[in-house]
């Protein structure tokens, strides 16, 4: 059966007439069949028809995709620190979701820390949902947190729809979200396994970092030495060991050390339920290029050297690394200590939610990596991680979340023009390829005036 026959059958079963709420037509539409001329029919916020261009589907509204644009599925970013309530001056649901939409991201999953209270019980989850409910320009879901003393809260949060649980194996950076020991992590993994949830881990070993050189001062080399690869490698080995022992699904956040790739590959091969992400800053920036005092580049784990970056790209292409997400971790300009440039004092985090697609596409093009593959890493794979079966691809039955992307258009990053709340970025002045011209959520345009996003929960 051809795609047109299959889709035609599905669409005829789903509809009683030939008119759609929205039809999108273009020479370049990315579906499971690749980039090809297609027409997409949307009804009630869902994709109900995919046909060859020229069929002339009828719609109450028709969008003609420009010749230089590719119609993409909306990106899914499962690693975003929104920080509201409590630290809304760092970022908030309005600014974060506007930034997401401007970057072609139609779904985010918010991290449980940096807000006050952190998302470690039902009351805190409800407070956060209330804060987001009237401000979301894209779809927003939530991770829960696993900290010492909240074991009894984990199942309640799971049943309330969080997508899984985040823990730290070292100080998180904020006192209200304390870290777990490896043994405590295992205990919580056992609990999560009982209801098939997911443990996502900031994997750096606290003991190794405690004994590493001090990060204070303006030299990036000094900061790099303060967060050695061994800290990541050791902690990832611990995650693998405890995931193997408990049988839980485990996910390694923001992989920076390429040294860990071989153990990850081996663990996956033996059947450990392990997934891994990396982030745009590890794939586009280089330690060798970071000026001393340039604290906009500080993140944890750190940006490493050129050879390490190339191995991360290879890890993606080999399937060892599953997906690319932002780890959007903003703060105020003051907290980045720009005036003094002290890496020991500055907040560790990179704000990149709006820029992820052009950042990755710019580097992918240099390596001969197709746009289809980039979107798989940034949409389909994060959707699979979160269990969002109706997102991540342009397919019949999926949500009508789209981005119109001009891959050959270039622009220069200007922090003053980003929707991120605080105008600081390591990408300032960088020339990038690929412009998101418009974004649709559930078939509706994001107009940056009226928030139309929905709060979403774990499926099943």
From TrEMBL:
Pathway: Nitrogen metabolism; (S)-allantoin degradation; allantoate from (S)-allantoin: step 1/1. Its cofactor is Zn(2+). Residues 70-443 form the Amidohydrolase-related domain. Keywords: Hydrolase, Metal-binding, Zinc. It holds the Pfam family Amidohydro_1. GO terms for molecular function: allantoinase activity. Coiled coil: none annotated. It comes from the Bacteria. InterPro entries: Allantoinase, Amidohydro-rel, DHOase/Allantoinase_Hydrolase, Metal-dep_hydrolase_composite, Metal_Hydrolase. Its EC number is 3.5.2.5. Gene3D superfamilies: Metal-dependent hydrolases (3.20.20.140). Homotetramer. NCBIfam families: allantoinase. Belongs to the metallo-dependent hydrolases superfamily. Allantoinase family. This is allantoinase.
